[in-house]
Write a structure and sequence with these properties.
Blueprint (H helix, E strand, L loop, with lengths): L3 E3 L17 H14 L3 E4 L31 H9 L6 E8 L5 H15 L3 E6 L4 H7 L6 H16 L4 E4 L4 E5 L12 E4 L3 H10 L2 E3 L5 H17 L8 E5 L22 H14 L3 E3 L14 H20 L6
Parallel strand pairs: 2-3, 3-4, 4-7, 7-8, 8-9, 9-10
Antiparallel strand pairs: 1-10, 5-6
Helix pairs in contact: 1-9, 2-3, 3-5, 6-7, 7-8, 8-9
Amino acid sequence: MPPVWRTHGTRSRAAPPPGSQTSPETIVKVAKEAERLGYTALWTFERLLRPLDKVRLWTGGEPEMLPEFYGSTYEPLETLSYVAAATERIKLGTAVLVAPLHVPVMLARRLATLDRLSGGRVIAGLGQGWQHNEFETANVPSSRKGARTEEFITAMRAAWAPDTVRHDGEFYRIAPSQVNPKPVQARIPVLLATNTPAAIKRAGRIADGLIPITSSAQELRGIVSAFHDAAREAGCDPGDLMVVNQAPWPTPVTRGPLGDGRPFLGGSPRQIAEDLMAAREAGATQVYLAGGQGLGLDVGLQAADVDQWLELLGEVIEAACRLGVSAA
């Protein structure tokens, strides 16, 4: 679960990176400290498996091996339920769940259960998926992922609505039923993770927010502009929507400043704080920092490194405050 920063007066953050050496105790320690420091949200993600053969990434290019930490990732909703019991205020987000690998009613009930257990703190980040091995394993067609994900969100929201619940669609059907529990929130925010033009337009039409992965403030500004334009065309107010910008994984969080070639949202606390300001000006409402690996950790956080990582993330908060991003 990597960290998050949010504009408009609040921030957020993450739990440790995945890996076989990341313990439940470490996750809770990071979550509690994130809440104490004033971060807005904790985020985690879903990975069904790590193929032992090279695969083509969603970004394209030549096939390559997935990073080793993908070989041991905790289930996101179970992890967030564990965190919810140890925290009181911090939001609990997924970036992301692969929607087509799930059943809309089942995922709706799981998210609603977490929302009730946490007192209304869930942010549901969804993606349409890209790894063909996962679709094969789940016995789900990988064709028409975009259309399937769009209807998935419609069916899931139907399950959260007052009974009687019903949905008749191309991919999913819910017979007239009672589906409970309902979430605490009147509307659990549903965010779509994407960078492609067609999916950005889809997100503007149907989602409550967007989770792009960008490597510069300029790239982020263009994506936010397209997202907001699509929202306006759909009759939505862009001011009501979230943009959670995700830094490419891994993004280094370092004690000293980095020089030439420094990645966007990586480097020293001061450098990250400056990039946070640029991200806000580009339209982000939150920034999801993929930290941890920047401390030289290959797989998960070692117990001896946790305090150092937490200290650095605290310094990010302090640097951001000095630049005018105050805690709520």
